[in-house]
TrEMBL record:
Gene3D superfamilies: Immunoglobulins. InterPro entries: Cell_Adh-Cytoskel_Orgn, FN3_dom, FN3_sf, Ig-like_dom, Ig-like_dom_sf, Ig-like_fold, Ig_sub, Ig_sub2. The keyword Mitochondrion does not apply. The lineage of its organism: Eukaryota, Metazoa, Chordata, Craniata, Vertebrata. This is MDGA1 protein. Residues 622-720 form the Fibronectin type-III domain. One of its GO terms (biological process) is homophilic cell adhesion via plasma membrane adhesion molecules.
Length: 720
């Protein structure tokens, strides 16, 4: 048993590769590139040295923001990605850290190679030549592919490979500003021999054994882009419950185009069927509205597209407003002043709504004192207003606004307004004793505002901290009785809530508002949740449990238990923590729990107190630890370690060493005495008579006057 000084060694790292790499090359001293085919398995290993044994973390940069590769702490130093995808290419970093000096960081660039199927599109132009005596036809065959590395393109007519300007009729070039890699084959002034079969072959020169890909097109004198015709108007208005069929007919296109229907927003509705170019929707609903797109593609020219804006008639949310005399800035109804009544419904199509006004059950008689504005510019679109000039007693009564879709089977909507001497603007207030509501987390809260006035408008609730939405997720909540019910309240719902009168179904004036404070009580949040406390025997430690958060933020009671038994403890008054002093001995070692309550609930801190020694830390970087004995087929192993925080507890007297042979599971136990101990001291023991080529698991436990400490384990493997 020997010892030598080793304070600690900073982490060092090196990346080595395994897995299905095509090639790994060092571009220069700093840049290492690992090339792999998409879909194969990536394996990178980070070899580390340093004492104590460093922790390894793999991280990644570049690639895409939505990378599936999360930061992981891979403690076996190996990063493995099955079926690697192109977005997972980029720079991978191995960071080794042991708290000594600066962390070691090494990186390698992973280049993922792939070759997608190419896409071939055909574009034709016809131009007049020499004063329209004859027409010249030019065809562009455009081949696009996504690949890494960039692809090489080979064009063929039949079996013949075409080269740039091999005859006057052929031109091959790369267009500017294209996405992916693109090559264009231009056939100028089309000749009979140009009607043939063309193949675009793309190649990444067999890197990572990726084979070439091909796409072929048969060019004929009938090759043409798709043409579509719709059986319905571009805007189609229907009644709910109708069955409708939209026909999208192919009027041209060679090769035969494919016709596809789509809907935005969202998919084509489930109550529909697509047959060829026909789209049928049964028992149509309001939510089936939207844009229906019919698209035809045959890779010649641009895709043909026709769009139908389908509107399903609907009417909902009839509202009214009473606007007192605006010119006189009045907020009340007064005889001799002007008065405006407005009426609005949310409808599709909005502009087709017809409004009618009735007074006391009879159609309103229009005069120079009674005006009707169909589109009131001061109010939401398509709002109808009835204006009474110079209000008289005879104008008092019940006014009815009816909204109708003419010629459609949609029920009318109506709204009634009473105008009398009792019609007064609203006031809002919080009932006595209700301005602060205190509830416990998880329970139900009821916030209340009282509205007076005739008519009584709805009440709109919002949070005063403007940016925060209501618990329902919306920014405002409308209630008709002024009461806001909150279920299963959480601490985040604490704060000030504002109630205000709506400007509809009542007076169109500045809203009246009031505030209600909600306090949500919740149990304490304490720290530490768990703490491992080590101290030498006959020395004392102070355990402190602190309240970080809570409502109310005050310790009402604190209770200490030792190994489950209640301890007599003086109460703390109005503090945010509780403390306990412990004199460490064998009898006082164990588990201490402090439970802090604020009268709403309780939370606990847990302390494990002992004089146990910390574990030893094995030294993995011993040069040539294996000593072979050629004659006897045995070997010896030089085991080295330092002791973690030796001064935290009583002096270490000896180590218990257990050696297990992995294949046989038999064990040998010995004790190693300790003469000298200090932090960072490298201790050494030679394990003799180990059998070649067996592996062994070693357990090492420090022993003090308190007893056994924490055990460290490692595996020893025989290597030549």
């Amino acid at each position: 048993f020997t010892s030598s000084s080793l304070s600690a060694a900073p982490a060092q790292a090196q990346i080595i590769h395994a897995g299905q790499a095509c090639v790994v090359k060092d571009d220069n001293i700093s840049e290492r590139v690992y090339t792999i085919r998409e879909g194969d398995t990536l394996v990178l290993q980070c070899l580390i040295t340093g004492h104590p044994r460093p922790q390894v973390r793999w991280t990644k940069t570049a690639g895409s923001a939505s990378d599936k590769f999360q930061e992981t702490s891979v403690l076996n130093e190996t990063l493995r990605i099955e079926k690697i995808q192109r977005l997972q290419g980029g720079r991978y970093y191995c960071k080794a850290e042991n708290g000594v000096g600066v962390p070691a960081i090494k990186s390698i660039r992973v280049d993922v190679q792939y070759l997608d199927e190419p896409v071939l599109t055909i574009h034709q132009t016809i131009s007049d030549v020499r004063g329209s005596f004859y027409q010249e036809k030019t065809v562009f065959l455009r081949c696009t592919v996504n690949s890494n590395p960039p692809a090489r393109f080979i064009w063929k007519r039949g079996a013949e490979t075409l080269s740039h300007s091999q005859d006057n009729g052929v031109d091959i070039y790369e267009p500017l500003y294209t996405q992916g890699e693109t090559k264009v084959l231009k056939l100028k002034n089309l000749r009979p021999q140009d009607y043939a079969s063309y193949t675009c072959q793309v190649s990444v020169r067999n890197v990572c054994s990726i084979p070439d890909k091909f796409i072929t097109f048969q060019l004929t004198n009938t090759t043409a882009p798709p043409v579509l015709k719709l059986s319905v108007n571009e805007t189609l208005v229907v009644n709910p419950g109708d069955n409708i069929t939209m026909q999208c007919s192919l009027m041209g296109g060679d090769p035969q185009p494919e016709v596809v229907w789509s809907h935005s927003p969202g998919p084509v509705p489930p109550n529909s069927l697509v047959q060829g170019g026909n789209l049928t929707i049964w028992r149509i609903r309001v939510e089936d509205s939207g844009y229906y797109n019919c698209t035809a593609i045959n890779n010649v020219g641009n895709p043909a597209k026709k769009t139908v804006n389908l509107l399903v008639r609907s009417m909902k949310n009839a509202t009214f407003q009473i606007t007192p005399d605006v010119i006189k800035e009045s907020e009340t109804i007064q005889l001799g002043q002007d008065l405006k009544l407005s009426c609005h419904v949310d409808a599709v199509p909005q502009e087709k709504v017809v409004y009618s006004w009735f007074k006391n059950g009879k159609p309103a008689r229009f005069s120079d004192r009674l005006l009707i504005t169909r589109n009131d510019p001061e109010l939401p679109p398509v709002t109808c207003s009835l204006e009474i000039i110079d209000l008289r007693f005879s104008d008092y009564g019940t006014y009815l606004c009816v909204a109708t879709f003419q010629g459609a089977f949609i029920p009318d909507l109506s709204v009634e307004v009473n105008i009398s001497s009792e019609t007064v603007p609203p006031t809002i207030s919080v009932p006595k004793g209700q301005s602060t509501i205190t509830v416990r987390e998880g329970s139900r809260a009821e916030l209340q505002c009282e509205v007076r006035g005739k008519p009584k408008p709805p009440v709109i609730w919002s949070r005063v901290d403007k940016e925060t939405p209501m618990p329902s997720g919306t920014m405002t909540v409308e209630t008709y009785d002024g009461k806001l019910y909150l279920e299963n309240v959480t601490r985040e719902m604490s704060g000030t809530y504002k109630c205000q009168t709506a400007r509809y179904n009542g007076f169109n004036i500045r809203p009246r508002e009031a505030l209600v404070q909600l306090n949500v009580q919740f149990p304490p949040v304490v720290e530490p949740a768990f703490q491992d406390v080590r101290q030498g025997m006959r020395r004392s430690v102070t355990l402190r449990c602190t309240m970080l958060k809570g409502s109310p933020m005050k310790v009402a009671t604190s209770v200490w238990h030792f190994n489950g038994t209640l301890l007599a403890q003086p109460l703390t008054e109005q503090q945010d923590y509780s403390e306990l002093k412990v004199d460490v001995s064998r009898e006082t070692s164990g588990s201490y729990e402090c439970s802090i309550s604020n009268d709403v609930g309780a939370s606990s801190c847990l302390f494990q107190v002992s004089a146990r020694a910390y574990s030893p830390e094995f030294y993995y970087d011993t040069p040539n630890p294996i000593l072979s004995q050629k004659q006897s087929k045995n070997y010896s192993y030089v085991l080295q370690w330092t002791q973690k925080e030796p001064d935290a507890v009583d002096p270490i007297l000896k180590y218990r060493l257990e050696v297990w042979q992995l294949s046989q599971r038999n064990t040998i136990q010995t004790f190693i005495p300790v003469k000298k101990m200090e932090k960072g001291l490298l201790l050494e023991h030679i394990l003799p008579n180990l059998k070649v080529p067996q592996s062994y698991e070693v357990f090492l436990t420090p022993i003090t006057s308190f007893g056994a400490g924490d055990t460290a384990a490692r595996i020893i493997q025989y290597m030549e």
